[in-house]
Amino acid sequence: MTGWREVDTQVAAKRLPPRAIGLWGGLSANVLNMIGIGPFVTIPLALSALAGPAVLLGWVAGALLCLCDGLVWAELGSTIPESGGPYHYLREAYGRERAGRLFGFLYLWQTLLTAPLSIGSAAVGFAQYAGYLFPALGDGGRVVVAALLCLANTAILYRKVGDIQKLSLVVVVAVIAAGAWIVFTGITHFDMATARHFLDAPSPSGKGFWLGLGAVSLIAVYDYGGYNNVCMLGGEVKQPRRTIPMAVLISIPVVAVLYLGLNISILGVLPYEAAAKSTAVVADMMQAVHGAWGGTVAVLLILVASWGSALVVLLGYSRVPYAAAADGQFFKPFARLHPRDGFPTVSLLFVGVTSALACFLSLEKLISMLMVVQILFQYIAQCFAVVALRRRKADAEVFRMPLYPLPIAVSVAGWLYLVATSGTSTMLIALAAIAVGSVLFLWQARRTRTWPFPT
């Protein structure tokens, strides 16, 4: 693509991080990001939002929406394989010196909000399960644990990516093995009477059903989130036009099957009323089957999953301010690389510290704000970015989504539905954030005499 190649030529002389992440590294980065604390704390929330078997429909709907959106990410990541992916996608699609400046700025602005929310949600979930093992922590102690986890992960990531890739592979194997053990336990101890009680539970109708379906789908999308993590690391991926689409599209069905298995396993062991009120539903299930040791081991494995998730999300998001600064669109210090290992230093430290501060919010607030802000700032705009980029000539090896433009239409409709059912207050806060970001952009553009102000 002409516009991207011009940018690529301009930055070729700059010292960039090496392309060291292969397919397994990219796939593990996605899967580990997806299999974090999410389903272990949100399954009860989903059961409370939509009673009866219809709750499973919400999980399936969320998976289908993510698969369509994954096709969007796969095509964009293959077309413009650069670190900080969405920033480059939006700049190129809408014109680097025209409206793309606004979209790029708004993406960076929302990243400064969503990066701490996303990493903080994993850390807060970690702290909640730590509180299950150490009740004496209390609310204040759990906040401290979550913040310290963010700071510890920042220290771990302060090294070259190759070491982190090896670490993520080890952790993702452990996480998948833990999920398989939980599902196997549920299947082998499945009680038909308990499951029938769940299937016979009345589901709401009319408006209540659609609001509940939207709430469950929003939770599901949050839990599936992370299939795009490899796109954040595009500039460090080997053979990116092949590796990025494969990593995105393989990770979604793998995790969807695991999550559905978790739901079915839990609902075949625990009465759904008890599951809906649980604060550690997997631990309760494993304790019901294996006794106290089962619950303890399950909690330890969940702590590993949530730690790994926070680690990899921090890795991906830390590249976004760096990419913007390297492109001259953000403060210069964020473009600094480690002199020996070639990773972003200031950007990593900034995202790590702000994530620690986000841990002072509740998990529910972190999740709801994270999803709605991302949808309104980024996801819908990216759908139309695919259309804009397709109008330009591209290399033959670039991935092209099948059934175009159907996946885009499904994605846009799905995102609008989730926003509409998320609640008025959440929408207003997200819209206010967009307004503030737009005002900041216009102030900066006027000061520098750039688009939309004449030079």
Automatic annotation (TrEMBL):
GO MF, any single term: L-amino acid transmembrane transporter activity
Subcellular location: Membrane
One Gene Ontology CC term in the entry: membrane
Taxonomic superkingdom: Bacteria
Record carries keyword Membrane: yes
Pfam families hit by this protein: AA_permease_2
TM regions (residue ranges): 21-47, 53-74, 106-129, 141-158, 167-188, 208-225, 246-272, 292-317, 342-363, 369-389, 401-420, 426-443
Keyword annotations: Membrane, Transmembrane, Transmembrane helix
Primary location recorded for the protein, binned into one broad class: membrane
Bilayer topology: Multi-pass membrane protein
InterPro entries: AA/rel_permease1 (IPR002293), AminoAcid_Transporter (IPR050598)
Protein name, per record: Amino acid permease
Lineage: Bacteria, Pseudomonadati, Pseudomonadota, Gammaproteobacteria, Lysobacterales
